[in-house]
Amino acid sequence: MRVDQRLGPHISNSLPEVHQQVVTGIVGDAPSRYAKTPPLWNAVYRDLGWDAISLPWDVTAEGLGGFVKAARQTESIVGFSVTNPHKIAIVPLLDDLDPLARQIGAVNTVARQPGGGLRGYNTDGQGAIDALTMRLPGLEGPFIDGLAGRRVTMIGAGGAARAVAFYLGSHLGPGGALRIVNRDAGKARALGDAVRTEYGVGEGAGEDRLRACIGDADLVVNASLKGQSGWRRRGDGRAYLLEPYSALGPADPASIDGEKPGGQFATREWFLASLTDLRKNVAAGLEAIAEMPAHAACFDLIYSPLETRFLRDARESGLATQNGKWMNVAQAADAFARKVCTVALREQGISEDAGYDRAFAVMARVW
Questions:
Q1: Within 13 Å of residue 348, how many CA atoms lie on the same side as its CB?
Q2: What is the CA radius of gyration of the chain?
Q3: Which residues make Cβ contacts (< 8 Å) with residue 344, sequence separation at least 6?
Q4: How far apart are CA 125 and CA 160, in angstroms?
Q5: With the C-alpha atoms ordered 329, 334, 339, 341, is the resulting torsion angle positive or negative?
Q6: Whole domain around residue 186: which residue ranges?
Q7: What is the DSSP string of 89-155?
Q8: Tell me: the pLDDT tens digits for 222-276?
């Protein structure tokens, strides 16, 4: 059975007929609309001369179990990336977890093992550290000159946030501080406690404590979905947008009939219904930025759009900003060379580190 036929019942986007010997992709609620993974991986495949393809797979929460089962049964699928909102939900569906992914409790990369089982990894955290501290193409130096002793405030406690939190905790050291704020204060506190248990830093609180956590922050990280492009759907099927929102303010967007997005007046209808909430959010975000230290840096994991409202407001206030582009490139290169395609690279005489450097260079060029 062809890949497209086996996966078809579990995805909502259209698939081309797949004839390549090696198949990878990315699974999430709507990666076909925004994910960079397929073009990045496909560029590396072309550079290596492989008969391989990477595809976006739109999968609902209800369809995730069936998708994983179908992927396990499809030997040409050597691995795939995982994006929102499935990074945590996919964990119990896999056959094995890398120890670090188990510690984080979230997976963004799945690789087929020699016996056919699916093993989960997490490359988000290292991707974030690389984006913050590496010397990147076209830039004079790293965005942050080291993380040891820094005071970091992070917004969000979901899958990507968990990975970034653990990696930040391992780099901040005893003189640093990691404050995690989230709409669900319980999740923030649980994540902060878990990081503190491992690395001695980490505390969590609700969004109402954000202003108190940024007054002396050296780095503010948005690891929430506030600011990301594209329509999102609630459990009841109704649709809403988050792109107009700042990560630094509370968000309670209105929702519209889930069948309307894509129509001529859908965005306008949603905007007018959400206007009062948007005004509150934007005002709170600007007030928060005004209270941040002049030396503070602002990092957003989001890369669609390239400049979120959080980053735009921060930039216009004179603060240093960076979007999620380089984190996306770094985590993708890590997943490609050190997780999913390691064996194939080795068969060509390419080591993991050399494969990472080659993949990073190609992905950075075509991003």
A1: 12
A2: 20
A3: 22, 50, 78
A4: 8
A5: positive
A6: 127-325
A7: TTGGGSSEE-HHHHHHT--SEEEE-TTS-EEEE--HHHHHHHHHHSPPTT-SS-SSS--TT-EEEEE
A8: 999 999 998 888 889 899 999 999 999 999 999 999 888 877 799 999 999 999 9
Q: What is the mean pLDDT of residues 192-214?
A: 96
pLDDT tens digit sequence for 269-325: 999 999 999 999 999 999 999 999 999 999 999 999 999 999 999 999 999 999 999
Query: Tokens 């992709």 belong to which residue?
Result: 25
Phi (first) and psi of residue 81, to 5 degrees? -90, 160
With a CB cutoff of 8 Å and minimum separation 6, the contacts of 64 are 27, 86, 89, 90, 93
**Is 87 a residue of the active site?**
yes
Element spanning 169, H or E = helix 159-172
Which CATH number fits the domain that encloses residue 314?
3.40.50.720
Residues 279 and 149 in one domain: yes
DSSP letters along 258-316, please?
TT-TTSTTHHHHHHHHHHHHHHHHHHHHHHHHHHS-TT-EEEES--SSSS-HHHHHHHH
Q: What's the CATH code of the domain at 114?
A: 3.40.50.10860
**Per-residue tokens: 271:** 């905007």
Structure tokens, 142: 């790293």
The owner of tokens 């209105």 is 254
Which string of DSSP letters, residue by residue, matches 44-108? Answer: HHHHHT-SEEEEEEE--TTTHHHHHHHHHT-TTB-EEEE-TT-TTTTGGGSSEE-HHHHHHT--S
Helix axis angle, 159-172 to 124-133, nearest 10°: 50
Q: For residue 1, what pLDDT is reported?
A: 56
β-partners of residue 272 are none
Q: Report which DSSP code applies to 327.
A: H
Q: How far is CA 99 from the centre of its chain?
A: 20
Q: What angle do CA 47, 52, 58 make, to 5 degrees?
A: 115
| Catalytic residue of the set 36, 69, 87, 325 | 87
In the chain, what is the straight-line distance between the N-terminal and C-terminal CA atoms, in Å? Answer: 33
Same domain, 13 and 101: yes
